[in-house]
Amino acid sequence: MKHVRLVHAGREQWGVLSADGASVRLASGHDVAFDEAVLLPPVTPGARIFALGLNYADHSAELGFKAPDKPLVFLKGPNSLVAHGGTAWRPRDAEQMHPECELVAVIGQTARNVAEDDALAHVGGYTVACDYAVREYLENYYRPNLRVKNRDALTPLGPWVVDAADVGDPQALRLSTTINGAEVQSGSTADMVFPIARLIAYLSAIMTLEPGDMILTGTPHGVAFVNDGDAVVCEVEGVGRLAHRVELAP
């Protein structure tokens, strides 16, 4: 199933997308047309958002770095998220802003000191992120600062969370990004330096992961800067197609 978060009747709600993708069934039994729904990023309020740097060897190489020997993890604030169909704001001090298509693992059950072999059983679902980077402020690839990864509305997320059982092997999915229809990124989750199971084992040894927590798992090679008015689509095979526009921040 695909789980959608939206605003209906003046409040935030979760629903399930119909098989034909035309409507969302709410818990009340009410159906909302998907193309008329006011979507929200499909994240549980209060959930922690982890993100990975340099988790694809080809991306590390194009930036002139060796792949790290340990996961490079940073946190993202909820202010940075924007929904499918929304607008990613290009900061007024940013000229080198580029999209990064990422598979997102959503924790489905509490995980603490989980073994790698058991880790995927703790994933409830997957979604898609476009984790923009404002490259001119990246002082250190190993420690991306707030101006690089935590600007307002800089991380489109969605459109939904797909049940893990419907995705299959998360390490065998194609990722791609297009800008105005031209492909600028293409890769496979098979090329992650640290696969999802290893990331869960690593993080759960540090802190308890709770249902709803998200792990943005990094991006493959392909650096292309966006301009105001660009239409950007990030797609992960079997998970979803995340579309948005880029505009100058107010």
By CATH reckoning, the class of the largest domain would read: Alpha Beta
Count of DSSP H/I helices = 3
Number of domains: 2
Global outline: globular
Low-confidence regions:
none
Supply the helix-strand structural class: mainly beta
Radius of gyration: 17 Å
CATH architecture of the largest domain: Alpha-Beta Complex
Strand content: 35-45%
First-to-last CA distance: 37 Å
State the total count of DSSP E strands: 19
Helix-strand pattern, N to C?
A: EEEEEEHEEEEEEEHEEEHEEE
Task: Explain this structure.
The model has no long low-confidence stretch (mean pLDDT 92). The longest helix is centred in the last third of the chain and has 9 residues, at 196-204. Helices cover 8% and strands 40% of the residues. It folds into two domains: 1-40, FAH (SH3 type barrels, Roll); 41-248, Fumarylacetoacetase-like, C-terminal domain (Fumarylacetoacetate hydrolase, domain 2). A hairpin with a 2-residue loop joins β15 and β16 (182-188). The chain has 250 residues and is mainly beta. The N and C termini lie far apart (37 Å). The protein has helices spanning 57-62, 146-149, 196-204, and strands at residues 2-8, 11-17, 23-26, 31-33, 38-39, 49-53, 72-76, 81-83, 87-90, 97-98, 101-107, 123-130, 133-134, 155-163, 174-179, 182-188, 214-216, 231-236, 240-248. Strands 1, 2, 3, 4, 5, 6, 7, 8, 11, 12, 14 and 17 form a twelve-stranded mixed beta sheet that branches. The protein has a five-stranded mixed beta sheet with strand order 9-19-18-15-16, with no helix packed on it.
